[in-house]
Each structure stands twice: as C-alpha cells, then as structure tokens.
Amino acid sequence: MYVVEEKGGGIALMVAALILLGTWPAIFNLLERRGRLPIHTFLDYVFTNFLIAIIFALTFGQIGHSTPETPNFITQLSQNNGPSVGFALAGGVFLCIGNIATQYSLAFVGLSVTEVVASSITVVGGTTINYFLDGRINRAEILFPGVFCFLCAAATGAVLHHSNKSDQDKKLGIVRKGNAFDQSRQRREEGGMSMSPALGVELPNEDLALKQKYGNGDIEDPVKPSALDGNAKAGAGTAEYLANVENTRALKNSKAGPLVGLSITVTAGLAYVIFSPAFNLAVNDQWHKLDEGVPHLVVYTGFFYFSLSFYVVATTVNIIWLYFPPLGLPKSSITAYLKDWRGRPWALLAGAICGLGNGFQFMGGQAAGYAAADSVQALPLVSTFWGILLFGEYHRSSRKTYILLVAMLLLFVAAVGLLMGSAGERND
Prior knowledge:
two-stranded antiparallel sheet, 4 strands
C-alpha cells in the first residue's frame, strides 16, 4: 500500500485538492446556466466520483505487500472493522447532502457566494473538531488565526455579494421593495416584455418562447455562448448579458429569493462540517470502537466506503427527484436522463475532478493532520477565479465591489497559508 507520510507531501496533496475541489462547482454552474437539469448533471457526476475511489483502492491501496498494521484494500474488505466502516459511510452521506445543497445554492446566490459561505462554515466547525480528534498535532497558534481569517473572509464575502447585487440591479433598472421587484406593468405590456422569474428581469416575449421550446436540454440553446458561458450578443457584466443568462438557465422559481439560496448554502456548510471528522474517525479510530488487534482502515479503504455511500444515497435521491423534482424544476424520467447527452462529458469530468480532490485531501490529512487538510476548503480562491473567467460575475462592477473582492481573496490566501503552515506529522 502506498502511504504519504511526510508533511511536505501532505501539503502538496492539499494544494492539488484545493484546485480540484474549487473547480467542480464551476462546471455544475456552467451546465445549469446553459439549461441542463441539475438532476441529470448530478447522476452523471456521482458515477465518475465513485469510479475514482475504486481506482484509488485498486492501485494505491494494493501497491506493495500487505502487513498486519497496514493491510491492502482487498484484505481489509473481509476484516471485522464494522464501526470504522460505519463512520466512513456516514461521512459519505453528509458529503452527499452538502454537494446536493451546493448544486442548488449555485443557482440562487452564485458560485462565489456559495463557496465563501459554505467553506467558511466548514472550516470553523470541521477544523476545530479535527484538531482535537488528531491529538492536537497541528500548531494551534497558527491554525486558529487561519480559522479567524476564514471568518473575516466570509464576512467580507457577504458584503461583497450585497454590493455586487446592487451593481446588477442598477444595470437592470430594478428597484427593490423588500423581496419583490417594483416594475411598471404598463411598460412591460407596451414594450412586449415578460418577466424572467429568477431575477425579475424584463425579457422579450420572443426569447421566452424560444426558451420554452429549446431550453430543456433537447437541442442547442438559441442563445449561443461565447467561450464557455458568455453571450455573443452582449459583453459580460452588461444588463443584456445578465438577462440572457437568466433566460437560458435551468433553475427558475419566482417565489424563491436570496434568503432561500443562503439557507441552502448554510445547509451545505453544516453538512460539510461533519464529513471530514467522520472520515478521520473511520481511519484513525480515536474513539476506540474497533476490537483489539483489528487494524485501522487504511485511507483508501475508508475512501472506498465513503464514496460508496455517497453514490448510493445521491443516486437514489436524484432518481426520485426525476419524477418529483424540487424547487420548481420540470419533471423528467430515467429515459429522458439516459438520452440527455448534452453536457454529459462535462458532468462526468466534474465527478472525476471532485473524486480526485477528495482522495488527495484524505491522503494529505492522514500525513499532516485533518485540521490542516481543511485548508482545501478555501475553495473561493479557485471558484472566484472561475466565476470571473467563465461567468463574468464581477465584470463592470463598482470600485467598491472590486475593493471588497480583492480584500476577500487576500484573506483567503492568508487563511490557506496559515492552515497549511500549522501542519504536523502523525506519530501513530
């Protein structure tokens, strides 16, 4: 079995995991904005996610000779390690809840805000729990200032989101009254305009008719994207661009607003708090649930069981949602899903990327402590980059918004540096 034992190797794996785990939500966001049903995307995603765990187990988990202390993957499948397997399975269930919540949060509050809020909750809770589970091998004087930087970054991100939404409202000529949009009915009727239910944006009736005909993933959208998500007719950040994005996306619900999105995001963060400590307990047995003489789960066996429960729960939930969809999505079916190849390669890629990121995070955590490994939750460093590059999230915003954006990113850089700098070396 291949084991990473040195702190330097663990940190390198954490950096790779940070990049990978910050990338897959961008692909989800891309597909939803281009009209593909999130349920179809998730069913593709979980398949390759589980496939990566199997590959890790049969390669890294089988390299070299099996020993009593560190048995190979196949050997461990028949051992009496039920309590540890239970923790690994539970970790996968909580990650599944977090990923599903993240998928729908992206549509309501955007890529950057979703990652800022969810990641910050994860780090504050998960890092603290892992620090004590790992016997305080991480340097507290460095670790917890890093956690504080995450909190400051989250607060800055909340203000940034509000500032950016204000900028967008000015571009669209929207006047908010509470949670509603106050617009002139006479102007809409005289101008031949209709409302995009996601933002309350005025759109030509002809565009809405085209969306109804083409926007459910059957054939290409009538609005052709430039690069991966832009609009050939409108520059990123313009009112026309924002309106066209809302017209082509899959998830629309006129009764839902920012508070719904933030609630879903908080749910994702709370679920993410649990999954890493659960995996830590699975492979290190800090609560001494295994019988004497039974070896701990190796990281690859734990990763296999973790991903197995993720796959089973996610597949079951999303198959049910094909027929009873949440949040106003249209109904689908297994047949429709199997025929929906539009965007499937991207969804399969997202699952592989997330699987690699999870595997590297667990390998790095086993080497340098799972509290330090939570530095990979600085996903906004990567997701904000993708948000700017692919989705024009902050294009043509105000100076205030740009200042807040830079401040948030600098705080995340400081947090990552401090958390990784707190890494220790496991002695057992």
